[in-house]
Amino acid sequence: MSNLEREAVPSRCGGRGFVVAEPVRELLSPRRVKLGESTEVRRLLPNLGRRMVGAWCFVDHYGPDDIADEPGMQVPPHPHMGLQTVSWLHDGEVLHRDSTGSLQTVRPRELGLMTSGRAISHSEESPRPHARYLHGAQLWVALPDADRHTAPRFEHHAELPRVTAPGLSATLILGGLDGATSPGTTYTPLVGADLTLADGADVRLPLDPDFEYAVLSMSGEAHVDGVPVLPGSMLYLGCGRTELPLRAESNASVMLLGGEPFEEELVMWWNFVGRSHEEIEQARSDWTTGTRFGEVKGYDGPPLPAPQLPPVALKPRGRVR
């Protein structure tokens, strides 16, 4: 998914200097952003207070939206580099096209994983006809320097491992959890899981104390380590945890995101993850001139133009502001 804001704000992310090395309970509020023609998202990362959780560097939550009489998601072809995109749905479908020739409809609880590597372009749209409701999350994972120039690729995994306990059903999106491992390709130690909590659930989920974690609420009201987390908000949990208490007084669903703190500093601007102003500038030029990022075939509409770069060089900001 693309960052469609007309004035893209650069940010410097990564580095371990701002990692909270102990358990915390930091509730992050979303910023509302218009995405395409009719979809509004709640952006949790980058946030005014925190920019990364492990290698997770971008989190949008959207819906549930009634799109029965709307076009739904319509994101024109746009570029990416230096990251992976994770498409995750609870309701609806998203049709993915990219410059490697991939054409795939992603459905609820299926993993659509695109590794941009050195350069890729893609589009995302609600199929025609489409389901009445659209509800999901779009996330990015930053690639480490050793792998960020890899060849672009798209993966679709319709069957994913599950972890269950009384009152809990967890679908493993990426990484490993409680002995289960996702088939999705990862480049740093991390985890992403979709947790469904039944009415009255009171469980403790095992965690890796070397990871930092956050929990994104998708629906219902879950109490995460005693903190009520409402849909569209995210609770940052820090590091040093061996387990996570979860409780729900009604049916609820959350996403667990975590990973080893990302060591490298990186620059995020628009849909690019790089390491310097010059690298971002070159990527924008390549997209504008139609080189490097390839062509998305079959989308009915023009590609997305790049916003203007800021008038000053990108400055480091660290993991938190």
Automatic annotation (TrEMBL):
InterPro entries: Pirin, Pirin_C_dom, Pirin_N_dom, RmlC-like_jellyroll, RmlC_Cupin_sf. Residues 41-141 form the Pirin N-terminal domain. Residues 291-321 are annotated as: Disordered. Coiled coil: none annotated. Residues 193-292 form the Pirin C-terminal domain. Belongs to the pirin family. This is Pirin family protein. It comes from Streptomyces anatolicus.
